[in-house]
Amino acid sequence: MRRLCLSIVLLCFVNAVHAQSATREHFAPKGWEGSYHGLHYTPVVRIGDRVIVSGIPAAEGDTEEAKIRWAFQQMQAHLEAAGASMADVVELQSFHVAKDHDEFRRRIEPVLKVHREFFKDHYPAWTAVGTTALYSSDAPMEIRAEAVIGSGARARADIPKPPAGAP
Fold first, then answer.
1. Which residues are CB-neighbours of 25 under 8 A, at least 6 positions away?
2. Region 28-33: what's the mean pLDDT?
3. Signal peptide: which range, if any (predicted)?
């Protein structure tokens, strides 16, 4: 009898954990449906409170800065489709077309400018990578993001400012 009771308790626990496991939801903002159906990738995936935005090429605009701003605007729309906001972004990864370090540094400048427009404080972690090519041939960069819904409302940064002249 003791063994049967323990088995029932264990089964109830396993069922409760399974019932609470996160659901994976797939989203494609208007205009991005072809990514899912044609290219077979999901523009945005939500697992519980975690949101993953696939790489968005900086593909629309007359200037490099305009293309980059468009990519950030698309990232914002992708996040909103899954119930997140730019304030909820905890990590960015960006990929920049450049043939060498000097070109990479030059190409990151407009990204930094646009980044400052979208992230005024409580900045996400960010990895910027140089590469020779992207899927979208005219895009100078591509950006992807991860967010945790609601984390922007509780963000804090107790990081002292560095002395003048320090990076």
1. 45, 46, 47, 82
2. 89
3. 1-19
